[in-house]
C-alpha cells in the first residue's frame, strides 16, 4: 500500500508541477487541490467541501482547481492522512478521532462522551485559543490545520434495543481508530472494533459487528438504518472534522492565491457549520420515513444511567492526553448541559 501511495504521490507531484510552460499557456495551468474524504457528497462535510471548491475557484479566477473525491474513492481513513503527508492529495477533513494514530492524540478530547452540550458551546472551543493551539500541533506532522467543520452528535445503533448500559454488554461495536472510543465501549462492557468507515455497512450487514455509533447524516447516507433494527437517540458524543492541507503545498502557494483560498475556506466553514444541524435533522426525518429502523428515545433516567456508566472514560483519557487538556476543554464548555 505504501508503495502505491508513493506512486500516487509522485504522479500528484508531477501534476502539480505540470509541464514547464511560458507565456499565456502558463497562466492558464491551474493549481490543483485534490480534496479527499470518506463520506457521501450530501453530508455536512461533503457539502462544505463542494462549497470550498466553488468559492476557491471563484476567488482565484480559476487559477485554482479543486477536485473533490468523496466516498473513500481515493483513500480510506488512515491512508488518507498518509497520502496528505506524502503530498498525493492536498486537502482532507478527517474527523478529530483520526489524528490519534498519526501521533496527535490531543484531538481525541473531542471524542469524550458528553463533553459537548451543543454546537454553540463547541464553537467556544474551536474558535478560541484552545482550538488554535490544537491546530498548531499539526505543523510538526507536515500539515496545516485550516478550519473546524461540524458534523454533529452521535447515536448508537444495533439489532438489539439499547436503552440501559447493560444492553451493550458483549456486543461488538465498530469504532473509529480512537482510544477514547475504545475506552467508551469497554466501559459499557462491549467489544470495540476499529474499522474504516467505508466498511461499516457491510460489517453490519454480515454481522461482523453488532452495532455502531455515528451521526444521523452518516447513518442515513451509508444506509446503515437498513441493516440495524434500532437506533437510540443518545447524542452521547460528537463527530467533527479538522480541515488540513499539506503544509509545504500551502506554504509554497503564491501569497495572493493562499489568501483567496483562506477566504474561501472561511466562508465554506461558516456555510457548512451553519447548516450541519439541519442536515442531521433532515437525515433523521428521512430515516424515520423509511420505517426500516426503530428510533428509540431515552428517558431522563436512562440518559443519566448512560452518562454515569461512561464517566470512567474521563480518567482513562486523562492518562493519555493529560488532565490539564481535559480541564482546559471543560473550562470552555462548563456551565452548559447537554
Ligand atoms: C467515521 O469514520 O465514522 C467518520 O469519521 C466518518 C466521517 O468522516 O464522518
What do you see in this structure?
β6 (172-175), α7 (179-187) and β7 form a beta-alpha-beta unit. The chain has a 6-stranded mixed beta sheet, sandwiched between helices. It is α/β, with parallel strands linked by helices and 338 residues long. The protein is globular and about 60 Å long. It has one domain (2-333): Bacterial extracellular solute-binding protein, family 7 (D-Maltodextrin-Binding Protein, domain 2, 3-Layer(aba) Sandwich). It contains 14 helices and 11 strands. The protein has helices at 2-17, 24-28, 44-59, 77-86, 119-126, 129-136, 179-187, 200-206, 216-221, 247-252, 255-290, 300-310, 312-321, 323-333; strands at 31-36, 64-69, 91-92, 143-153, 155-158, 172-175, 191-194, 211-214, 230-233, 238-246, 294-297. The structure holds (2S)-2-hydroxybutanedioic acid (LMR). Residues 38-39, 45, 95, 151, 176, 197, 214, 218, 239 line the site of (2S)-2-hydroxybutanedioic acid. (2S)-2-hydroxybutanedioic acid is lined by residues 38-39, 45, 95, 151, 176, 197, 214, 218, 239.
Topology:
Elements: H1 2-17, H2 24-28, E1 31-36, H3 44-59, E2 64-69, H4 77-86, E3 91-92, H5 119-126, H6 129-136, E4 143-153, E5 155-158, E6 172-175, H7 179-187, E7 191-194, H8 200-206, E8 211-214, H9 216-221, E9 230-233, E10 238-246, H10 247-252, H11 255-290, E11 294-297, H12 300-310, H13 312-321, H14 323-333
Parallel strand pairs: 1-2, 1-3, 6-7, 6-8, 9-11
Antiparallel strand pairs: 3-10, 4-10, 5-8, 5-9
Helix pairs in contact: 1-4, 3-11, 7-13, 13-14
